[in-house]
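Problem: given the chain below (382 residues), write out its structure.
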Amino acid sequence: MTTDASADARVTRAWGRILEWLADYTPPSYAALEAGASDHEIAAVEEALGVGVPEELKALWRLSAGEKGVNGSGLMLGDWTLMPLDAVIEVHQTQTQMQMEMRLRDTDGEDATEDDDLLALWQPSWIPFCSSHPDDTVNGLYVNGRTGEVCRWSRYGEREREYESLPAYLELMAVSLEAPLTAAGPEKPGMLRGALVWGPPDGERGGQWVRHLGEARPRYPAKTLGAIREALPGGERAEFDEQRDAVDLTDPGAVAALRDHWWGRAVRAQEKLEDEVAAALRGSVMAQPGRELAPEYEATLPPAIRHRPPSLDDIRAALRHESVRARFSQDHLAAIPPHYPALLLRWWDIARLMADPRGDRAVRAVVNGRHTSEREEPEPHR
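Solution.
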């Protein structure tokens, strides 16, 4: 298998989107993730396995090297658990040993043939990374180091291809979280006592599980340094960068103090921005256009609607994608004049959401999903 830097970058981007979502919506699951592994720790895994690890899997481990699990479930798409590195080593060594014993028994001392390899239940280049349960590693997912495919193994000898690659698996997970109405497969994202659980789960837990339907993002930024920085006005980011670069990242107390201080400043900045927007839109947007936003916030809005009240043309230009514009035009044609102010405000919010890349992807996925499902019978409300 040939791996290029683009696969590593896809893993990094997709996992970043997943981390953002977990921090925003399911803090217990976010807290259950282990810290990223160092290159030294990954090299130790390769030495223990006796084989190289695909670069895209290394990229994932550098960001999060496993999870503890919450409520007896893992957070990975399909209700899998991201395995800690010691579990990866244990599963690989156990499966490899079982394969060697089976081969010795079947060949009775004769050299193995190519057909034996094709029938093998485990290959050294298969690197496990997910298991069925935090405490159960008899089923799971592995990356085929030769082909890059993500496959499933089970205690019953099943070896089935599940996804084209690790980047494809993580990207599908990210989209399923960001635009849950378009989630593929039988598992849907939901919450159980505040944690992410793919379901609906069986038994008693099913009655406690709440499906996630794409509610609005939380008002305040997540308590991660990246999310806090993005929420700050442009003029404050240099000071934030200076303090972040000076803090000792090996001191949890110092990191927490930095994060809490700047999160408070980001929250205040966001509240001030909301006040400015509300003032600009006070009254009827048709009759009273409002006033300009404060200069320090001009970079927070799409260029087409900076310093101006929303108009049909402004919003249409800011939506950026033809499929979303078509939906806006459809809603506008179906509205009657008394509803125009509410219609403009709603779509102006959508335009602002699409200024963020994650929001852009989510809006387009939901709108495009509606086009393909409008003829289908809607699901009953739960």
